[in-house]
Amino acid sequence: MDLTPNDEQIALQTATADWCRDHMPLAGARSRSAGLWQQLHAMGWTGMTAPEMGLDHATEALLFAELGRFLAPVALLSTAVAARWTGAAGKTALALPAQEDVRILDGVEASRALGAFGDVLAGFPLDGQLSSMFSLDQSTTLARIARPAAIEPVDDPHALLHLQLLTAAYAVGCADAARDMAADYAKLREQFDRPIGWFQALKHLCSDMAVRAAVARSQLYYAACTLDADDRDAAFHIAAAKRLADQAALDNGRANIQVHGGIGMTDEAHPHLCLKRAHLLQFIVPADMAALLAA
């Protein structure tokens, strides 16, 4: 199995990164423009997973990792899955069922929500205006609603795997963002007339971040290819990709704050944005221990 992106995939990946850098910088994650979703729709990001687009999961993983690097809206995950498996058009919020209610992530202007209810992916309409607040991840709104009386299961087990794969891609991008932020700061900040990246302790921190991100990305690529091939072990490989990606995003987010030192602990600096997004992503279709031990 060749895991090397081809020229067309690299071109799409580069175009996605360039657009995100210009229109959706990570530094502005807490104050995104009101028209961002319309811009994402105009660029085709919200509908690129629709069946008629013919995009394979491997290419999706590449693109969603780039979107995740810039902390793209969480609703892109649920919207992408809904477009492929239900044919739903428009924004679909992400649902996180809890014991007594359902948390709706990024539900502003969404007409439906989609999420994992046990081992089934299911959706339901959103009625009325949601009373939203910012979640721990301040780029994402959160609303709580009563559990819907009826949900509409998606009658294909691949749909839930698809959501887990794309969420893992977001986490890989988040790990990459924290790694790059730390490395850039280590080149800029000086102590004792040298960039702090010159000191061995900081070199080790940044090297570990790079290794974690690379391992998670490699597993993501392999998992996406197994889903494309309808491999019988696809669920295991996607669960492994999610576990590795979540851990890389969390560990890199923490290390990024450590590299930034005192300023890394402040709200005015940006390292906390990656760590908070990493914490949020780990709650979305977490890797099931049974799936990881099944092989």
Automatic annotation (TrEMBL):
Listed GO molecular functions?
Answer: acyl-CoA dehydrogenase activity; flavin adenine dinucleotide binding
Q: Gene3D superfamilies annotated for this entry? A: Acyl-CoA dehydrogenase/oxidase, N-terminal domain (1.10.540.10), Butyryl-CoA Dehydrogenase, subunit A, domain 3 (1.20.140.10)
Per UniProt, residues of the Acyl-CoA dehydrogenase/oxidase C-terminal domain are 160-282
Q: Which organism is it from?
A: Sphingopyxis macrogoltabida (Sphingomonas macrogoltabidus)
Q: Which cofactor does it need?
A: FAD
- Kindly state which keywords UniProt assigns to this record, in alphabetical order: FAD, Flavoprotein, Oxidoreductase
For this entry, the protein name equals Acyl-CoA dehydrogenase
Which InterPro entries does the entry mention? AcylCo_DH-like_C, AcylCo_DH/oxidase_C, AcylCoA_DH/ox_N, AcylCoA_DH/ox_N_sf, AcylCoA_DH/oxidase_NM_dom_sf
Family, according to the entry, reads as follows:
Belongs to the acyl-CoA dehydrogenase family.
Domain Acyl-CoA dehydrogenase/oxidase N-terminal: start-end pairs: 7-78
Domain of life of the native organism: Bacteria
